[in-house]
Write a structure and sequence with these properties.
Blueprint: H1 4-15, H2 17-34, H3 36-42, H4 47-75, H5 77-97, H6 101-129, H7 135-160, H8 167-187, H9 194-199, H10 203-213, H11 217-234, H12 241-244, H13 250-264, H14 268-273, H15 275-281, H16 287-315, H17 318-342, E1 343-346, E2 349-352, H18 355-374, H19 376-386, H20 390-421, H21 425-444, H22 453-459
Helix pairs in contact: 1-7, 2-6, 2-7, 2-8, 4-5, 4-6, 4-20, 5-6, 5-8, 6-7, 6-20, 7-8, 7-16, 7-19, 10-11, 13-19, 13-20, 13-21, 15-16, 16-18, 17-18, 17-21, 18-19
């Protein structure tokens, strides 16, 4: 007999395959574009064109995420994830079979539409199906599978780079299509979010779902009453995008959008997308060596996400956010300093002189990935989702994800040029942005550890809701 907690984790694991899809693309797209087999069949990509190709998925994902709030409110959270998975499946099949660069760009845009839909809804779904005692751990399942996908993407690309011919760069896309098919086939059997069911007036169905997800029948009725009370206070009408930024909700809305936007200004995706370029600049002389070094960063990413997965509900949200921010900024400021002292450019290529500085930069990149993985990668998504009321959560999370991917699009688009134009500039920029974010969170971010989604609302209200 599977325990209730194990059942919740299994549901979260399957829904979080959407995150693994995102990670597979993030980990493999940089190595794919650096493969000689890719260049010989598609053509060599300049820094500007490379940035456009890598970043275009973020543009379509950001636009799709804005619509995800309507879709997940209308169709349900689980079908919001499922429909996104279908679109990802279509996009990755086209990518795996593409014969020209324009088709690859179009396929990547299609994949982004599906990714924007599914990723935006998964965090909501995980927060809404899990009890407060394990909500942080369950919600971090998405980030854990993203990191596993990133590491897997690096090593699949490293292994397939040894294959001669076009199949070398098509294999990662084939793997993504297979994973999308698994996600789609399983989501139809997942339960609805009980909070979405209550919001739709389907009380008996919500009770039935809670009975499967809760350990005792008494807790079922208590949780159902709490959800109903919260929604009745907020009214049964669906929230609008305008309401998210009205006076009552503007503090939490602005804070969550700020955190999701500035998460990307930490520079994490510049590292993950363009790891082969970073390691080549730091001294690795062959593509395969740079791919392997990138794979090591993927492993570190996974390993350092696991402690956060296990202990986020003990650590709380503030401590990892502030402590992690200081550690992230320190790593990038140190790398920027090393490039400012020992770096330079020859024939338009960035170099770093001396084995000592080269190894120091490589170690600091790994330390940066580790610091981000146990802190910001996990905490920001959970916090931004849980501080929003149930009635507004889908649309607010859509706005959060839109801001996240628009900033990410800008970073991914400009990073190849930035990395080649200025040896130290990118690191000082990202380090400074991280320090600013850390300072804002220190002064404006209340702790939410151990509180139910309904209790968290009281943290941002002038008058706490009366106990029913």
């Amino acid at each position: 007999m599977v325990s209730v907690t194990a059942k919740i984790y299994l549901i979260a694991l399957h829904a979080s395959l959407a995150g693994m899809l995102w990670g597979l693309d993030t980990g493999s797209i940089g190595p794919i574009t650096q493969m000689e087999q890719f260049s010989s069949s598609i053509g060599h990509l300049s820094s500007g064109v490379l940035g456009i190709y890598v970043a275009c998925i973020l543009l379509s994902a950001s636009l799709s995420s804005l619509c995800s709030g309507y879709i997940s409110d209308l169709l349900s959270r689980k079908y919001g994830i499922l429909t996104g998975g279908i679109v990802v499946l279509l996009g990755t099949i086209i990518s795996a079979s593409a014969k020209s660069f324009p088709i690859l760009v179009g396929a990547r845009l299609i994949t982004g539409i599906g990714q924007g839909q599914s990723i935006s809804v998964v965090t909501i779904y995980l927060c809404e199906i899990s009890p407060q005692e394990i909500r942080g751990t369950v919600a971090t399942m998405l980030q854990l599978l993203i990191t596993i996908g990133i590491a897997l993407g690096y090593f699949v690309a490293y292994a397939s780079s040894r294959i001669r011919g076009e199949l070398a760069w098509r294999i990662p896309f084939i793997l993504e299509a297979s994973m999308a098919a698994i996600l789609v086939s399983g989501m139809a059997f997942m339960p609805y979010s009980p909070r979405w069911l209550v919001q739709r007036g389907r009380i008996d169905e919500a009770r039935a779902v809670l009975q499967k997800l809760c350990a005792s029948s008494k807790f079922v009725e208590d949780e159902l009453s709490l959800i109903k009370g919260s929604l009745e206070e907020q009214s049964r009408e669906d929230g609008s995008y305008r309401e998210i930024f009205q006076k009552r909700y503007i503090r939490r809305s602005v804070l969550s959008v700020f955190m999701m936007s500035f998460q990307m200004l930490s520079g994490i995706d510049a590292v993950l997308y363009y790891a082969p370029i970073l390691f080549t600049q730091a001294g690795f002389t062959t593509n395969r060596a740079a791919f392997l070094a990138s794979g090591v960063s993927g492993i570190i990413n996974v390993i350092c996400t696991i402690p956060a997965q296990l202990w986020v509900d003990r650590w709380g949200r503030r401590s990892p956010m502030i402590g992690g921010g200081i550690s992230i900024a320190t790593c990038f400021m140190a790398i920027g300093t090393l490039y400012a002292i020992y770096g330079g450019k020859i024939d338009g290529q960035v170099y770093l002189s001396g084995k000592g500085p080269q190894w120091a930069v490589i170690i600091l990149i790994y330390m940066f990935v580790a610091s981000f993985s146990w802190s910001w990668a996990v905490v920001i998504k959970i916090y931004a989702c849980e501080i929003i009321p149930t009635r507004l959560r889908a649309k607010a999370c859509a706005v959060q994800q839109l801001s996240n991917w628009l900033v990410n699009f800008t970073v991914a688009l400009t990073a190849p040029l930035f990395l080649r134009v200025s040896p130290s500039g990118p690191y000082f920029f990202f380090g400074s942005a991280t320090l600013f974010t850390t300072a804002v969170c220190h002064f404006l971010m209340p702790e939410t550890k151990g509180k139910s989604l309904e209790e968290i609302e009281d943290l941002f209200e002038m008058t706490p809701r009366a106990t029913q």
